[in-house]
């Protein structure tokens, strides 16, 4: 398996473009160090990273505010161990996160579920914006990520569950929660067995409260027809500044 470095062009003008370029430069060293370290440990070929000498060349590594180097290293190490479970070497960017956050009515969100939180890049933003009486349930299959999330985010509103999204109904019932207002998911539906994918989508639909939404982000369009079989209303967006560029699906009954 080759380790790839993705390049693209900065978008926007003036101060917005300068902020993007500044972010890219700031995270380049951290990304290069973490990926090179993990590639060596797991016997993967090293990559050659082009120098960021022009605004057109960019690489984005968006990590959480807490323990950024630890998060980046943990995420990269687990990508090499379980590439099909993560789908991407790099955590979600702030551009992608902002798309997702705009879909949530925070005054109405009492129960939010996140599938595959990884190192909590999106989770911490949810916690920052949630009301004091809201609950966030994150469901993660990777034991390393579960341990990290429990250590890193000692928030009483957060429930970190080591398990499968296919068991979302049982997990919510065990926590005494009657459905979810929002479910967010970036788990790679295209690489999982068909029966597991179907179970997750079906049970997510059943777990949503009236007017609830399933917010999905993927790096391909492969999941779209499967979502259409279950959800009647699907709105699509695209975020090119994420690495990889992301397809977003906002689903409701």
Summarize the structure.
This protein is α/β, with parallel strands linked by helices and 253 residues long.
How does the SSE layout of this entry go?
Blueprint: H1 14-41, H2 68-81, H3 83-86, H4 94-101, E1 111-115, H5 121-129, E2 135-140, H6 143-152, E3 158-162, H7 168-174, E4 180-185, H8 194-207, E5 208-218, H9 224-228, E6 233-239, E7 246-252
Parallel strand pairs: 1-2, 1-4, 2-3, 4-5
Antiparallel strand pairs: 5-7, 6-7
Characterise the protein shown here.
- The protein has 253 residues and is of the alpha/beta class.
- It folds into two domains: 14-82, no CATH class; 94-252, Rossmann fold (3-Layer(aba) Sandwich), CATH 3.40.50.150.
- 39% of the residues lie in helices and 19% in strands.
- The protein has helices spanning 14-41, 68-81, 83-86, 94-101, 121-129, 143-152, 168-174, 194-207, 224-228; strands at 111-115, 135-140, 158-162, 180-185, 208-218, 233-239, 246-252.
- A seven-stranded mixed β-sheet has the order 3-2-1-4-5-7-6, with helices on both faces.
- α5 (121-129) links the parallel β1 and β2 (135-140).
- α1 packs across α2 (68-81).
- The longest helix has 28 residues, at 14-41.
- The radius of gyration is 18 Å and the shape is globular.
- The relative contact order is 0.13.
- The model is unreliable at 1-12, 16-39, 44-67 and 82-89 (pLDDT under 50).
